[in-house]
Amino acid sequence: MGKIIALANQKGGVGKTTTSINLAASLAALEKKVLVVDADPQANASSGLGIDIKKVKHTIYECLIGESTPQEAILRTELDRLDIIPSHINLVGAELEMLNIGDREKKLAAVLRPLKDDYDYILIDCSPSLGLITVNALTAADSVIIPVQCEYFALEGISKLLNTIKIIKSKLNPQLEIEGFLLTMYDARLRLANQIYEEVKKHFQELVFETVIQRNVKLSESQSFAQPVIVYDALSRGSVNHMQLAKELIGKNS
Ligand SMILES: Nc1ncnc2c1ncn2[C@@H]1O[C@H](COP(=O)(O)OP(=O)(O)OP(=O)(O)O)[C@@H](O)[C@H]1O
Ligand SMILES: [Mg+2]
Fold this sequence. Notes:
Elements: E1 3-7, H1 16-29, E2 34-39, H2 44-48, H3 60-64, H4 70-73, E3 75-76, E4 82-85, H5 91-97, H6 107-112, E5 121-126, H7 132-140, E6 143-149, H8 158-171, E7 177-184, H9 191-204, H10 217-224, H11 229-232, H12 237-252
Parallel strand pairs: 1-5, 1-6, 2-4, 2-5, 6-7
Antiparallel strand pairs: 3-4
Helix pairs in contact: 1-12
The structure holds adenosine-5'-triphosphate and magnesium ion.
């Protein structure tokens, strides 16, 4: 039975999509069967994994409103064992369209439930918001990875996110756990980055991944070439960091 993990932080640009793409690719390289679910209308995870988002017909949007089955929406990627359900800008409208339907927070859970047997890991890349689609992701998930950028105000908004997780746990998804806080864009030369690491560690202790994702230009380059970094530059620091993260995640879950 696969594990569903949401990557969430309503703060923008903290590394949710970069982690989704590259953790997923690394898990696939380690022989796990992985599905990425792009739950962001920006569709960055879809394009980052080589999907031509202008051409896709069945996206997570159609799945959520019951117009497509997940089987119709799942696409293969360049990597063996790595599939994706892409997104589309019209996912923005889904929040409104879903307002009047029953169990609207549980739609994604219902879409993904039958896929749990087909994958070892299902990673949901959330948008920078705590709106209905992210609530759906957290309701569908077994756990959540919270990427935290090593920058000023890194922990800003975290208490709001934790409060949302608490409410979802009590009302919608009692099993939801925090898989871990992941420090991203770490630059060892900056004292600030070290301070933030220490601060996050002090607050959240064993919930912080030992693996830290360093700042590495290959990570942003690989996305503009629509490839995971292990394909674009397997020996880069970004690639090594994400392989280490995948091994840490597998270790925690075995
Ligand atoms: N470790 C890193 N080193 C260098 N660049 C990075 C790193 N992580 C992310 N980036 C770059 O920073 C930008 C923001 O990252 P990303 O898109 O993963 O964040 P996000 O949290 O998904 O953003 P959004 O909230 O908009 O969805 C991207 O251009 C990405 O390529
Ligand atoms: Mg993103």
